[in-house]
Each structure stands twice: as C-alpha cells, then as structure tokens.
C-alpha cells in the first residue's frame, strides 16, 4: 500500500485540501481524506476565534493560578478531548457513547483502539470499511530497520524498560518526514501531512518497539514472528510477545489502549504539546512525553497504586472481612500515608473508566488458583476497598475534594493480574497515550498554532502587581 507521503504529499503541498477534493464515498475514505474533509470548517473557526474574538477575556488570572502550576487556567487549546468533572469527553462524546457508535474489531467485545483513533483524528465514526483500510495501512508501516534493532539490542538490561522505550524513539527520530519537510522549506500550512506520516509510522511501529523490549527482558527468545496483516494492532502485539492465543491479553490490550488514548492536556500531553510546538519531530516529542510520564504525580501513579494494592493483598490475604479492610485503610489514613488511586485534579465523581475495567474482570474472570500460584494482587479485595475508602476519606480527611477512586486504582493492578509485568505496565499504557497525543499534534499543525511561550514571573514581580 502506498504511503500518504508517496501518493498525496506533493500535490497537497501545492493544492491544500478543500471540500471539492474529497470525492470518495464515506465507506472508502482514507484517514487523510477524512481529516481533509474536516479541515476547512476547523480552520474557519480558528480564524474567527483569533480575529473577531481575539481580545475576548476567557479567564481572570489569579495568584493561585500562577503559584499553583497553572491549574484551572484554560490556556491550552486541546482539540480532541476535554476533561469534565464527570469524565472525559472526546469531541463532546463520552466513552460509553462512543462504544455504542464505533465499530468493534471482528470477534472482540472491547472498543477498537483503531476505531477510536480514527474518531480522534476526524471527529467522525468510521465505517467498517474505513476501519479495515486504516488498520491495514498501519500494519503496512510496521517495520524496524536492522540498524534500530541492533541499537535496541545493544542497550543494557540494567536500564529499566521505560528508558529503552524513550531512547528507541529518540533513535528513530532520524526517520522523521516532518523534519525533512521543515528542512526543505515546506509551507507551514502543509506540514501536517508529513507530520501525519510520522504519527502513523509511530503508531504502527510502537508494537514492535515495546514487544522487542519485552522479549529482551522476559522472552521468548528467537526471531520476531511474522505479523498477521488481517488482524489489528493488539492481536499483532500479542503475536510479537508470544501470546497470540491469549484472548484475555489481546482484549486487555484493546481495553487499555482505549481507556488511556487521550485525557486532555495532562503532564505528559502538555510536555509533548510544548515540544511539538517548536516543530520538533514527533519521535523526539513522544520520547519527551514518556519521560514526563515517569513522574510519581502523573502516569507513574499507576505503579504507586499497584504497589499499594500488592502490600494490601500481602497483609490481608484474599478473603479479609470488611472490618479488616476498614482497619487497614484507616491505619494508613491516620499515619498520613497517601492512598494512591483516589482523587483526581478535575473529576468530582468516580472515574467512569473504572466501570470498564470492572466489566472486563467480570467478563474474563481469572481462574481459581492455589495460594502459591495466586496473582500478587487480589482484584476482588481492591474493588471492595473502593466501596469503603471514599466514606473513610470524607470522615477523616474532609478537605479532600474528591475521595472517589480513579482509573489508576484498578487498571494497573488488572494489567498485572492478567500477566503484564509490573515494570512493563507504563510502556503498555504509554503506547495508547502516544496514539492520542499524535492526533492533537496533527491538528496543531493544521491550525498552524504558534510555539508555546508563556511569560514567566518572579515572586517579587508578582507581589508588586498586587
């Protein structure tokens, strides 16, 4: 299959998209054509906002905003999602609404990551034909050069897997079509096309990157198996990891990539947005976002929650009484310990994504095992704790704005219970998160948004303004 760069890029540079260029029926559109159909209206809206309404006040800045890490300031345009107090909206739709509308991959009961990705790029629901074409295009790009494979194999196993991941993306940056276009002086209004090429290349090759890292640390040994071009990315990741017949793992992959595909301008996304705004290549941008995600207050919270749940399982066992669970949690609260997985900067209800994880556990229950073969976390115990912790926090920590559990409280532990190694979870989740950000980076370039450059201020100057 010819790439976008080969078949459309030269003409698109000279003749940017207009509605008249979109000729194919909806059932046979490529992703490029679906994006192109949306561009005129979004560019018109961007022009209207930046001209007619450019001086309109949308927020009053306070000292709290400046001193509090810009929390609550609507200062970043994020086109594909928005986090409401009741949950994430994707082009205005909830995950439940999208689940009902998006086509699923044949044989799967989970939301299709590729279908959701199409929707994030285009704000339109793909047909089954479009989903098939899109997935086939992704798999046609899925290859690593011998040079990159040798580089990955040369990295020492004393470095953690997540370091291997961001170093590999940094090494892949030399392949960037966006960097080549910038160097060649391509007009900024057309840079989204080579950027989209990079984005799709990264999305596809990511399964080879993370599976090769996994094989280095955990096996199986031997050459990488052939991809199944009739399958989706999740199934091919399982093939590369030697788990092609493990339907629970394949479905878990689809679930994880769907739930974590986009979440607005959080730390890793904001980092990628900042780096991308300088016209850095998408590979280096993703590497920066992965590094940002290793912070304990951000994506690494999923690891903190897993560790907490492991300790709770080790202390209480698999069948404690409700009183024992309450006593364990209360002791931590009274000791001032953090309860990872509870609360959220924006949400003011229980994270709606939690219900998806619970549903997966019910649909694909783990088999009963002897104690010596039991998983390191008890998913039933964790869910029982979810019913008790919010009331304990309300009673003993009344200043906490949202005591409800968030998705991290269960998702990482579920991945681990179903066979994802603890130090591999962040890679597993980051793969989906990168997909979502790349959509936003393309729309940044379509709308020709400028480089991010907020003005900094010292405390003395801030005080002088009061």
UniProtKB/TrEMBL annotation:
Species for this entry: Galerina marginata (strain CBS 339.88)
GO cellular component terms given for this protein: mitochondrial matrix
Lineage of source species: Eukaryota, Fungi, Dikarya, Basidiomycota, Agaricomycotina
Name recorded for this polypeptide: Citrate synthase
Coiled coil regions in record: none
Keyword Transit peptide recorded: yes
Pfam families found in the cross-reference section: Citrate_synt (PF00285)
Annotated family: Belongs to the citrate synthase family.
GO MF annotation list: acyltransferase activity, acyl groups converted into alkyl on transfer
GO biological process: one example: tricarboxylic acid cycle
This protein's record includes keyword Aminoacyl-tRNA synthetase: no
Stored InterPro entries: Citrate_synth-like_lrg_a-sub (IPR016142), Citrate_synth-like_sm_a-sub (IPR016143), Citrate_synthase (IPR002020), Citrate_synthase_AS (IPR019810), Citrate_synthase_sf (IPR036969)
Compartment(s) where it occurs, according to its Swiss-Prot or TrEMBL record: Mitochondrion
Keywords: Mitochondrion, Transferase, Transit peptide
Origin: domain of life: Eukaryota
Main location: mitochondrion
């Amino acid at each position: 299959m010819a790439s976008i760069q080969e078949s459309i890029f030269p003409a698109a540079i000279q003749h940017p998209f207009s509605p008249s260029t979109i000729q194919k029926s909806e059932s046979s559109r490529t992703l490029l054509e679906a994006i192109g159909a949306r561009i005129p209206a979004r560019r018109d809206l961007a022009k209207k906002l930046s001209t007619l309404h450019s001086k309109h006040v949308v927020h009053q800045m306070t000292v709290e905003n400046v001193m509090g890490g810009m929390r609550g300031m609507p200062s970043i345009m994020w086109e594909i999602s928005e986090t409401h107090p009741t949950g994430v909206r994707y082009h205005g739709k909830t995950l439940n609404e999208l689940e009902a509308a998006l086509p699923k991959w044949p044989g799967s009961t989970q939301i299709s990551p590729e279908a959701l990705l199409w929707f994030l790029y285009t704000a339109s629901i793909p047909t089954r034909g479009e989903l098939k074409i899109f997935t086939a295009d992704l798999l046609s790009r899925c290859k690593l050069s011998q040079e990159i494979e040798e580089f990955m194999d040369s990295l020492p196993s004393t470095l953690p897997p997540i370091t291997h991941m961001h170093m590999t993306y940094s090494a892949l940056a030399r392949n960037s079509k966006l960097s080549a276009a910038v160097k060649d002086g391509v007009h900024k209004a057309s840079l989204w096309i080579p950027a989209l090429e990079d984005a799709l290349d990264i999305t596809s090759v990511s399964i080879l990157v993370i599976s090769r890292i996994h094989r280095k640390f955990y096996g199986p040994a031997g050459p990488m198996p052939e991809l199944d071009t009739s399958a989706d990315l999740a199934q091919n990741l399982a093939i590369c990891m030697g788990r092609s017949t493990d339907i629970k793992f394949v479905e878990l992959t689809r679930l994880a990539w769907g739930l974590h595909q986009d979440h607005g301008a959080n730390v890793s996304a904001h980092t990628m947005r900042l780096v991308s705004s300088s016209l850095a290549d998408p590979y280096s941008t993703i590497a920066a976002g992965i590094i940002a995600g290793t912070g304990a207050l951000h994506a690494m919270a999923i690891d903190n929650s897993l560790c907490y749940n492991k300790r709770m399982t080790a202390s209480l066992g698999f069948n404690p009484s409700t009183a024992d669970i309450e006593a364990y949690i209360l002791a931590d609260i009274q000791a001032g310990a953090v309860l990872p997985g509870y609360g959220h900067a924006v949400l003011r209800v229980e994270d709606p994504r939690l219900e998806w994880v619970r549903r997966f556990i019910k649909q694909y229950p783990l088999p009963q095992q002897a104690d010596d073969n039991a998983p390191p976390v008890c998913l039933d115990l964790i869910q029982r704790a979810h019913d008790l912790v919010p009331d304990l926090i309300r009673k003993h920590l009344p200043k906490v704005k949202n005591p409800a559990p968030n998705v991290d409280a269960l998702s990482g532990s579920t991945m681990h219970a179903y066979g994802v190694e603890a130090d591999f979870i962040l890679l597993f989740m980051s793969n989906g998160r990168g997909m979502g950000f790349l959509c936003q980076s393309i729309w940044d370039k379509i709308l020709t948004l400028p480089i991010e450059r907020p003005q900094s201020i010292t405390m003395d100057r801030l005080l002088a303004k009061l």
